[in-house]
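Intended use. Records like the one below are meant for learning the mapping from a protein sequence to its folded structure. Do not use them to infer anything beyond what is encoded.
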Amino acid sequence: MSVSPPTAQGRATRERIVQAAAQLVADQGAAATSLDDVIAVTHASKSQLYHYFGDKHGLIEAIVDYQSAAVLGFQARMLAAVDNWEGLERWADAMVEIFERQGSRSGCPVGTLAAALADTDEPLRELLNDAFTTWRHAISGALTRLRDNQLLASDADIEALATSVLVAVQGGLLLGKTTRDSAQLRLALDGAIACLRACAPSPPAQKPAARRRRHTA
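Structure written out for the chain above:
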């Protein structure tokens, strides 16, 4: 089990190790990353790793926490600003821009960890599920504001729509990462937003204009 060091220097050292280890896991996968790999990159001692993390499982747990915090922090900031369609488009644009800056390679750190760990490690699966739940709640908050601003129908199923948006994000990132083409993510997000727009309130029906009576002389 990983621990939080009591001193600022210890916390800084632990954070440096986690950041480097997270990059290793992103590059070569959790299963292929050994403690010796982490030692070689960070120049930390094996005793430091065991002190801070207990074992490899504790290190991977720290990586899950680190990557979840990074992803969810960004998502929370961006989605908190969404209260109209333009704000939602800006969120989608930011997602595509970040993916393109990464060379359409990295995908979603949380999704990548979930794909590698969810079937083999129940405690880590629960941590990753909590991360996705928090992300979905942030999307739900944005969609609730759209509904409050009468951009979504009052009876729109916010939770179902939020899940569909998150699925579009994960699927778009996976396809984009596989094809090295950010257009896959753009198409997925555009499709999700189009589905949301289809849930806009119906315009009120217009009454037919009353006919004027003809007066006869």
